[in-house]
Structure formats: structure tokens, C-alpha cells
Task: structure prediction
Amino acid sequence: MNDQNEEKENNKKTVNDNESSFDIDKESIVSTSDLVIDGTPHIEIKGLNLRYGSAQAIYDVSVPIEKNSVTAFIGPSGCGKSTLLRCLNRMNDLIPICNYDGQIIYDGEDINQSSTDLVRLRRKIGMVFQKPNPFPKSIFDNVAYGVKLHYNPSRRKMNEIVEKSLIKAALWEEVSDRLHELGTSLSGGQQQRLCIARTISVEPDIILMDEPCSALDPIATAKIENLILELKEHFTVVIVTHSMSQAQRVSDYTAFMFLGRLIEFGKTEKIFDRPEKELTERYITGRFG
Result:
């Protein structure tokens, strides 16, 4: 917790040590008129606050996530973007000192209600983590594991699901003749695509990606980015990234966060070409962060 507080203080100092200082509360979005999307929201964050014990990490954040789009969250380390991402399927519930208020509306209901079925929620809103984390099982069983847990289909149906999931994850052609081999024997990029196949095998609506390319080389990163663009035809994708160029390449909308606040949100092209907030412009041009 001291590290988190120190990181926030360092971020504050970085802003103040440049050409001018900012009133972060004034810079952050407070009007819903600033939160415009073209289509139907698939999930909506409304007035979310989150604390680790007494230390607040997210301040009154509201964001609409458009269905069948890619929304990227950007911002310096410690700004709260990964914490916010984990709120979308309540992964933060696993942290004892974490508490939050506000609404996250999905499928017409507030998922922050105590009555929410967390097993179903995490099936419908899946997560792909920063580092590939395949199970110590065969490639086939990695993809089949969640399907068995939730549906337990026939062997024939299972084979179809595994093949279809690996095809959607752009991995089938590379592993179709060695499905019995361990998933951990694959390269880093292949392992991450295997984890994506495992996620989509249980038919989620939304896929959360927390810096999915940070541990990958440029070639593997390009494959994941191409895959993300294909996935949005079937799923809604929310990605956290430190790469400005990656956000520009794969996302339809971008949300810039700083010190737990949402500073700016909009179409990715507009955020990077014509940002309204000076703080946004300074971050995306590398003048701090």
C-alpha cells in the first residue's frame, strides 16, 4: 500500500515539475455530456469509487462501453486503469481490503449488487491477463476446461467448441496436429492466444485484456492486435495498455486516466489528434508519464 501511495505522489510530482501544474479534479470528467458513444452501451460504469482500505484509487469514474467495439484505457502506472478493468467482473472482490461504490450496469442489472452470481458474471465477462497463464494441461484441455465446468457437453460437441475457439483465436493452424501437447510448451505469443481461446470457449459477451502484449515480442504483439480487431465482430473488448500506438491501432474509443480520475474519453482518433484536455495532450505526446 505504501508503494501505491508513493507511486501516486510521484505522478503528482511529475505533473507539477513540468511547465505547469494542474488541478486534477477540474481536469477530470464530471459531465455525462462528455461521455458520448455512437452505438448501444454493452456495459456502463456510473460514479465508481474504489478504495484499498483508506486509500482511494478510483474517483467517481463514469464510462460507457459500446457493444462490439474496442475501448482502450491508457494512463501512467498507478492511475487506476487495471483496477478499473478488474471491477468489470469483480475480480477486486478477491482483495480483502478493497471496497467500492457506484454502479456497473451490465445486461440491465448492477453487477455490484450482493445478489450477483459471480461465477456466471466471470463467464460472461472474461479476463485475459498481462502474462500468459496457460494451465499445466494439454492444449486441448486448456480450452476445454471451462467448457466442462460450465456446460459438460458431449465429446463430439467439445471437439467442435475447442476447434472453433482455437480458430477464433488464430491458433488452430499452428496447433491442430499437436493438441495433446502441453499448453506451456508453446511460445509466449501462442500461449497468450491459447488463453484467449480458453476465454472465448465459454461464450462470453465481453473480453477484458490487461496489457495482453506487454510480455510479447513485436511479431507476437502484431498477431494479438490483429486478433483483437477480429474479436470485436463477436465480442466487446476492453483493453488496458501502456502503448499509445497500440491504443491507436486497435481501439475505437480511448479513456485516459490519471491519479484515479477519468480525464478524457472519446473516439480514439479524436483523443490522439484533437484532445480537449491539456493533460491528455501532454501525456500522449510523452511530456510526462
Notes: The domain at 2-284 is CATH 3.40.50.300 (Rossmann fold). DSSP finds twelve helices and ten strands in the chain. The first strand starts at residue 41 and ends at 52.
